[in-house]
Automatic annotation (TrEMBL):
NCBIfam families in the cross-refs: PRK09542.1
Essential cofactor(s): Mg(2+)
UniProt-listed InterPro entries: A-D-PHexomutase_a/b/a-I (IPR005844), A-D-PHexomutase_a/b/a-I/II/III (IPR016055), A-D-PHexomutase_a/b/a-II (IPR005845), A-D-PHexomutase_a/b/a-III (IPR005846), A-D-PHexomutase_C (IPR005843), A-D-PHexomutase_C_sf (IPR036900), Alpha-D-phosphohexomutase_SF (IPR005841)
Record protein name field: Phosphomannomutase/phosphoglucomutase
Sorted UniProt keywords: Isomerase, Magnesium, Metal-binding, Phosphoprotein
Length: 489
């Protein structure tokens, strides 16, 4: 009897695969996706006369070993030799793809709850595979096999499946990019949230991979790998998941706290007082270091930032001799512009950080190492160092449920611009991603801006606002929210 058909449109999204196990993702489904990945991505980009190869890694979720093994079988069934690197972070898989120069697949659902799993696919050199770069073709081919019941089963596969441990090589590569040996000794609390940070942090920041010890005293929190996330969700973007770390850093007398998400490709930073350091400040801090390095090498540095980051980011980039390039929100846009501009670094408000020296892929660990180095190179506490980059007051992202996001957005723009015109103020409006309204500083009002973006998947309108100070930000935030939520005309 033919197995029930799964609609892959519900699990293969614009940039990755994500679904619940086993009703949406099981061994049969991911085997078909693996075979399609081999046909669409791996085989076409294999140079003539060379054997086709791919690399597969997975996170700590209970379903990851079985699903990744089925995927590897599917890839091998098309004549591709597969290297399985086992447990790894997402940036660990990107490293493997770049280091081995082969396409790769990472089994993870990032910060999603335990019943989820997923796949992040990339071409050789960690180049992303998205909807317009092969993912839709993978979906269509896998769907055709699932519909016909002719899913490749991996039996009699002509490709090989072997294992290779690349953790030490990954840690050594990161250490080669940031020198942590010359500064003062730091006490660091790391909250891995039971995710892959508990696997990579001891290797990179400690000596678990056999590398020399660094001048770091690491205090571990929730390093036990557990895809059921018993302590808190592995999503540091939600402030509730930072509370434990915020308490631990001052209690331990630590210099800094680091929080990683489930697949450890994002990193959030806490100062010695237990206060968060915004991803915008981290972006500017790392940008300053990368710009200086580029200038020393005689190159003109370009740094990418998305439009939700603080206005301080492009201002600091420019002041330090770099060229800022503003993009839409989303890793595909960042990576595309990184390649187009030859950018040395890119940062997002969501704590994704991209490095040219890391195949232009995102790695939270490398960003964390830059912050550690910047802190260790001077004697001030992190709160004082971060203050150099926290120039303005930001609202954070605020979601509102709306029936018609486009109509509501236009009503906000019309109301705000009409008020400004009546007051003799000039506004700049752009539509790079949603609508951004910018008020440059004038004699009457300080600088402020806001952005409204509609969610692609939910009836939500997302507001981000920033002002020259807390009071200015609060005024524009509350004005916009009142209109969005129908509380004023």
């Amino acid at each position: 009897m033919t197995a029930p058909t799964v609609n892959l449109s519900s699990v293969i999204k614009a940039y990755d695969v994500r679904g619940t196990v086993p009703d949406q993702l099981d061994a049969r489904v991911v085997r078909a996706i693996g075979a399609a990945f081999a046909e669409v991505v791996v085989l076409p980009e294999t140079p003539a006369g060379q054997g086709a190869k791919a690399v597969v890694g997975y996170d700590m979720r209970p379903s990851s070993p079985e699903l990744s093994a089925a995927f590897a079988d599917g890839v091998a069934s098309r004549g591709v030799d597969v290297t399985v690197i086992g447990l790894c972070s997402t940036d660990g898989l990107y490293f493997a793809s770049g280091f081995l120069q082969v396409p790769g697949a990472m089994f993870t659902a990032s910060h999603n709850p335990a019943q989820y799993n997923g796949i992040k696919l990339c071409r050789a050199g960690a180049k992303p595979v998205g909807q317009d770069t092969g993912l839709s073709a993978v979906r269509e081919l896998a769907q055709s096999w699932l519909d016909s019941g002719e899913v490749p089963d991996g039996t009699g596969a002509v490709g090989t499946v072997d294992e290779q441990d690349l953790l030490k090589a990954y840690a050594a590569h990161l250490r080669s990019l940031v020198d942590l040996t010359g500064g003062r000794r730091l006490k660091v609390v790391v909250d891995a949230g039971n995710g892959m940070g508990g696997f990579t942090a001891p290797a990179v920041l400690g000596d678990d991979a056999g590398l020399p010890a660094l001048p770091l005293d690491v205090v571990p929190m929730y390093f036990e790998l557990d895809g059921t996330f018993p302590n808190h969700e592995a999503n540091p973007l939600d402030p509730a998941n930072l509370v434990d770390l915020q308490r631990a850093v001052p209690a331990e007398g630590a210099d800094i706290g680091l929080a990683f998400d489930g697949d450890a490709d994002r990193c959030f930073v806490i100062d010695e007082k237990g206060d968060p350091v915004s991803p915008s400040a981290v972006t500017a801090m790392v940008a300053r270091r990368e710009i200086a390095k580029e200038l020393r090498a005689g190159r003109q540095p370009v740094v990418i930032h998305n439009l939700i980051t603080s206005r301080a980011v492009p201002e600091i980039i420019t002041a330090d001799g770099g060229t800022p390039v503003r993009t839409r929100v989303g890793h595909s846009f960042i990576k595309q512009r990184m390649a187009e501009e030859g950018a040395v670094f890119g940062g997002e408000h969501s704590a994704h950080y991209y490095f040219r020296e890391f195949w232009s892929a995102d790695t939270g660990m490398l960003a964390a190492m830059h912050v550690l180095a910047a802190l260790a190179e001077q004697d001030r506490p992190l709160s004082e160092l971060a203050a150099e980059y926290e120039l303005y007051a930001a609202s954070g992202e605020i979601n509102s449920t709306v029936d018609d996001a486009a109509a509501v957005t236009e009503a906000v723009v019309e109301a705000v611009t009409a008020t400004a015109a009546a007051e003799g103020e000039t506004l700049e409006v752009d539509r790079l991603d949603g609508v951004t309204v910018f008020h440059p500083a004038s004699q009457a009002q300080p600088m402020w801006w806001f952005n409204l973006r509609a969610s692609n998947t939910e009836p939500l309108l997302r507001l981000n606002a920033e002002g020259a100070d807390e009071a200015t930000m609060a005024v524009i935030r509350d004005r916009v929210l009142a209109i969005v939520r129908g509380e004023s005309a």
